[in-house]
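Lab notebook, bench 4. Still working through the backlog of constructs that have no structural model yet. Next entry is a single chain of 327 residues. Request: give me the structure tokens for it.
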Amino acid sequence: MDPRLYNDPRDAAAAWFARARSGRMGGADRREFDAWLQADPEHRKEYALLEQLWDSTGQAGHERLRALAGVPPESSGRSSGRGRRALLWVLAGAGALAVGGLGIGMHWQSPANFEQVLTSAHGQRRTVLLPDRSSIDLNTDSRAVVRFYPDRREVELEVGEASFSVSADASRPFIVHAGRATVQVTGTRFNVRRRDHVTEVAVAAGSVEVRAGGWAFWRRETLGPGEGLLASADGLTPAAAVDVASVTAWREGRIVFNNTPLPMAVAELNRYAPFVIRLEGARLAQVRVSGTLNVDSPGSLLELLPRIAPVRVRTDAQGGHVLTPAP
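Model written out:
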């Protein structure tokens, strides 16, 4: 069905959704789809509702969905994936059913059989062992919600950074939701950081599949050891080599700077220090630093900064520290 034939936003959203999920959406279609989304807030609202419905149907009994949609039962031997794709066309062909059924789909989702909220304070790092023998290392100022279901393990990284060591279980994938990225694995070690509107993913061992969020949901990248990417509102960057040891040095209480702009280095230090460090002097924005600092010794940070950067350190009236250019 051609989305351009529908004037009603709900019907057009359903048609676009079906086309996107069919795997036949080319570059021209995507540009037209993006233009349609931007043309009216109602378009984005209706499409978002369909995305939520699609996610919820994955947790509903497949034959129950087919029965409610009026689709004959599948014959034995057909894959649930093919059936769900066929069901998509039924849902997409009736926008009212799709949107109206959202509440039903959410109601069908089975409750978690394990749930735990994990938090870390400013400057704190902590390791948590999960019931499946996976573990999560939380970095400073982080919060994650862990939920285990019979068929999957999910973590919502709401803020901050975490490193995951996942116990392999092919029957229960491990899924991390973090801003614009969804990371799925069966067993591996990887790091996820939410930074403003960007999510960073880096893999230490094994492999992960990263799926973009929002309107770019069809974009996927597979990462292997030593690879990473960024996820944002624009989608996913291509997989690229990253220094995973430096990215995850925080687990050992270290920060590694490698030709890092000083403003970025100071922002990183402020994630851990019990005081605020700020820059004074426009020319410091051009300074780059390299070195390794111990975040567990805040005092040493101030002692080492003048050794790795042309700066002076002074204390301000509020008990913070100001970096000024060295003469």
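Notes after review: The CA atoms of residues 213 and 310 lie 42 Å apart. The chain is about 30% helix and 30% strand. Flag for follow-up if needed.
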